[in-house]
Write a structure and sequence with these properties.
It is a single chain. By secondary structure, this protein is mainly beta. Helices cover 4% and strands 54% of the residues. The protein is built from two helices and 44 strands. The strands form nine sheets. Strands 33, 34, 37, 38, 40, 41 and 43 form a seven-stranded mixed beta sheet that branches. A hairpin with a 3-residue loop joins strand 4 (55-58) and strand 5 (62-63). The protein is globular, with a radius of gyration of 32 Å.
Length: 611
């Protein structure tokens, strides 16, 4: 009987334990949490408190800050969380905390220890208040007597403020005379926008003909609020000269509809004018093609880094690049999809072309390169970009002359940054063609811009202002238009059309002919004071000329409120070096903004000389 009672008591006791656990009598253990861990920079010989601003806690044990253990590689000897590093360098810090149940959490940071330096002194301060001479490049604004309109060079462009368009198209003109011609095909592209939809005539008048004669014209061309090229194409059979005319006066395309005519009170802005001269002939001879009808192994391969996950496959007559997840860090180069070009070699000095179809499940932009499969950008002969909308199919193509030879070329798509709200994607590649371009076709391009700064160079003739722009359409990319100027002591960069990758809209300082030279044995702080008429972001780089090894690589979120950004280098160099500063704005987000103007009121570089 006693045995039965003991068994019953044991059963009751077990039931109470189960009941207590089920009702929350014992809490599930949670891991500790470390907060405040971040990268730091100090000077050699300066005390570093590794615990400043850092805490640890957990739900069961409460405050665990006193139990934080710090380790470093290379080794530093911490005492009460403090240390005085004597040697400059980079130290990888590991913070660890363990709760009473043995759960361990680690957090990581980098401590950069710089050499001891002098006080910061101004090394270079850019003065944007100097008056700049502007070259009209031979273009002249003409307005008939009594017409309420004016054309002038301002804000990096040719600007026509038109109150009334007059009585005919020729009452308001932009004209360039004496344009020398030879037997060739010509194309004129005028990049323009208007605050109201208006019409224009673009005409090439034959200056050597008796009376009025033209080589050709483009009539009733619409200029809208978004900048776009107005195009004129014509052919010349012999030597001669032309007067190019953009007529902005009153145009009524259909006399039966007089209300459809040039408006009043509007402004036309012209960023640049491009003139192409094309002579000779050429043919395209394919040397490799692939429509993926056969699922050849290795036809498309993919590699992914920075936390991205992607795979390539060939099915249903097409190649697929499936992106399961995008990089958690890194950039546009994190995912590389290689389109193989078996048995193809690229010869230096030869001209080549390529094309392929690209379809995307979700919107995607990236870079399209021709380079070595094994040497990557160290053996690159072509750089292009692409942007494809969700569900859209585009043709990606290009023509290039190889500056060097490539023994193992691939068409490499570099993909990284996703579109807003996109976490995965699938790209379909088809109809790949790669070949040689043969013949004697020559294309010469003249680009007239209306800014006091250089275009594509660093304004070598004006060393006080080593600034220039690069915009994608300057080199025949689909998007990217902008201009720069100074006004009221500030530097302005207006993006009239943004590209979808950052290098399609660049403001540069110190490019090629007018480098930014920084002295050796020093650290530098670059301070930039800026604002914009719309919130816009850019990547900022301080990069040595001739290679890609940025000494500063930062993000700038420029707002409508003026703010000062400060970036400091973390290493020195043994000789004086030539640098460029790059502000790269292109992105899908910037493209959605429309026109955006950035104002930089100050750029100052401070030097801290190593002692």
């Amino acid at each position: 009987m006693k045995r039965v009672r003991k068994i019953a008591a044991a059963i009751l006791s077990f039931a109470l334990v189960v009941s207590t656990a089920a009702c929350g009598g014992k809490k599930e253990n949670t891991e500790p949490e470390l907060t405040g861990v971040s990268d730091k920079t100090i000077e050699a010989g300066q005390e570093f408190n590794a615990l400043e601003g850092i805490s640890a806690s957990d739900a069961e044990d409460g405050d665990l800050t006193a139990k934080i253990v710090i380790d470093s590689t290379p080794k530093l000897s911490f005492k009460n969380g403090k240390v005085v590093p004597e040697k400059a360098g980079s130290y990888e810090l590991t913070y660890s905390v363990t709760d009473k149940d043995g759960a361990v959490v680690n957090a990581y940071a980098t401590l950069t220890v710089t050499k001891q330096t002098s006080e910061a002194v101004v090394y270079k301060k850019f003065d944007f208040s100097k008056e700049q001479a502007v070259d009209s490049k031979g273009w002249t604004a003409k307005v008939a007597d009594g017409i309420a309109a004016a054309g002038e060079l301002k804000q990096g462009a040719y600007v026509f403020d038109i109150t009334s368009p007059g009585n005919g198209d020729g009452d308001i003109q932009l004209v360039k005379s004496g344009v020398a011609l030879k037997p060739a095909d010509y194309k004129v592209k005028i990049w323009a926008k208007s605050t109201k939809n208006t019409y224009a005539h673009l005409i090439a008048r034959d200056e050597n003909a008796e009376g009025w004669a033209t080589f050709g014209g483009a009539f009733n061309v619409v200029i809208g609020p978004e900048i776009a090229p107005l195009e004129l194409n014509f052919t010349v059979g012999g030597e001669g000269s032309a007067e190019l005319m953009l007529n902005l006066g009153k145009i009524t395309p259909n006399p039966d509809n007089p209300s459809d005519t040039t408006p009043e009170n509007f402004t036309v802005t012209i960023d640049k004018i491009e003139i192409y001269e094309m002579s000779g002939e050429e043919t395209k001879n394919p040397v490799y093609s692939n429509d993926f009808a056969l699922a050849a192994e290795g036809a498309v391969t993919v590699s992914a880094g920075d936390g991205a996950v992607s795979q390539a496959s060939v099915a249903d007559g097409a190649a697929n690049v499936n992106i399961s997840s995008y990089p958690t860090e890194g950039g546009v180069w994190s995912i590389k999809a290689d389109i193989a070009l078996p048995d193809v070699t690229v010869e230096a000095g030869k001209k080549y072309y390529y094309s392929f179809k690209l379809r995307a499940e979700n919107a995607q932009s990236g870079e399209c390169l021709i380079e070595s499969a094994s040497l990557f950008d160290a053996n690159r002969v072509h750089f292009n970009g692409f942007s494809v909308g969700a569900g859209e199919e585009i043709e990606v193509n290009g023509i290039f002359t190889a500056e060097g030879a490539v023994a193992d070329p691939v068409i490499r798509l570099q993909i990284g940054n996703p579109s807003d709200g996109v976490s995965a994607n699938n790209l379909v590649i088809d109809d790949v063609v790669f070949g040689k371009v043969e013949g004697d076709l020559e294309t010469t391009k003249t680009m007239d811009t209306f800014t006091s700064f250089g275009k594509g160079t660093a304004n070598a003739a004006n060393p006080d202002y080593p600034f220039s722009t690069f915009n994608g359409t300057d080199e025949e990319h689909e998007r990217g238009v902008g201009t720069i100027w100074t006004e009221n002591g500030s530097l302005f960069y207006r993006i009239d059309q943004a590209g979808t990758t950052d290098w399609l809209n660049k403001l540069t300082c110190g490019y090629t002919d007018n480098p930014l030279t920084l002295a050796s044995d020093s650290y530098y702080t670059v301070e930039i004071t800026a604002k914009a008429d719309k919130n816009v972001s850019c990547a900022f780089f301080l990069n040595p000329l001739g290679s890609w090894d940025p000494r500063l690589s930062e993000r700038m979120d420029i707002t409508t409120t003026e703010q000062t950004f400060s970036f400091t280098t973390k290493d020195t160099f043994i000789t004086d070096m030539d640098f460029e500063m790059l502000f790269q704005f292109g992105s899908e987000e910037t493209a959605k903004l429309g026109d955006v103007t950035i104002e930089i009121s100050d750029i100052t570089i401070y030097q801290m000389l190593v002692q």
